[in-house]
UniProtKB/TrEMBL annotation:
TM ranges: none
Entry annotated with the keyword Transport: no
UniProt-recorded name of the protein: Monooxygenase, FAD-binding
Record keywords, A-Z: Monooxygenase, Oxidoreductase
Lineage per the UniProt record: Bacteria, Bacillati, Actinomycetota, Actinomycetes, Kitasatosporales
Length: 209
């Protein structure tokens, strides 16, 4: 109805992967991440599970979205030569996981979120990408504004959709425009930038003056 996804997809220069790490599921410890330039590996624990998390910067990659082995190879190649911290262990977990997840960090930019009697809400219409940290907020405000305008406009869904878009669009623009600062915090491109990011975080953490 709205056309091919590729017409509205905006790649943000980042890929993201998740893998189950069952060997760590019962262990204690804080969630942790480790950066090398333009890359991040981490380990997150929740509800008795442990997940290896990866991010890396890259230009768009052409790959088969149904071929897990090809996606795992992309991840391995992205971290080639990086053997510090627990990176090799986490990559082994990714290779072993039959439910490995791999995707790009991308946004959806549509000129309009409605066609006929169909209106889009949340990621379907204006995905800001996980780097923004605002996807859930946009989905909630969008659902609220749409419901309010449908109630206000009665049977005139065309007017309701237009009013919904007018109210929601500023929130979407704000969230999508700020995604690059989130990317730069998560994936600094140099060792100096990593050190500066860490120093800034320490200055605002517990015990900071």
């Amino acid at each position: 109805m709205f056309g091919p996804e590729k017409d509205y997809l905006r790649h943000l220069g980042v890929y993201f992967a998740l893998a189950d790490h069952p060997d760590e599921a019962r262990s204690e410890g804080a969630n942790s991440i480790y950066n090398v330039p333009s890359r991040m590996a981490g380990l997150f624990r929740y509800n008795g599970k442990a997940v290896a998390v990866f991010q890396f910067r890259s230009e768009p990659i052409d790959y088969d979205h149904h071929d897990l082995d090809a996606q795992k190879k992309i991840l391995i190649d992205a971290f080639a030569g990086h053997r510090s911290w627990r990176i090799p262990e986490l990559l082994d977990a990714a290779l072993a996981d039959p439910a490995f997840f791999f995707t790009s960090a991308s946004q959806i930019h549509l000129p309009s979120w409605h066609r006929g009697r169909v209106a889009l809400v949340g990621d379907a219409g204006y995905c800001p990408a996980f780097l923004s940290g605002r996807g859930t907020s946009l989905a909630l405000t969008g659902a609220r504004f749409l419901a309010e305008e449908l109630q206000r406009c009665g049977n005139d869904h065309t007017a309701a959709f237009a009013r919904y878009e007018a109210r929601q669009r500023p929130y979407v623009t704000f969230a999508q425009d700020r995604v690059y600062s989130g990317r730069d915090r998560m994936l600094p491109t140099t060792w100096d930038a990593i050190a500066a990011r860490n120093k800034a975080l320490q200055a605002t953490g517990p015990g900071a003056p």
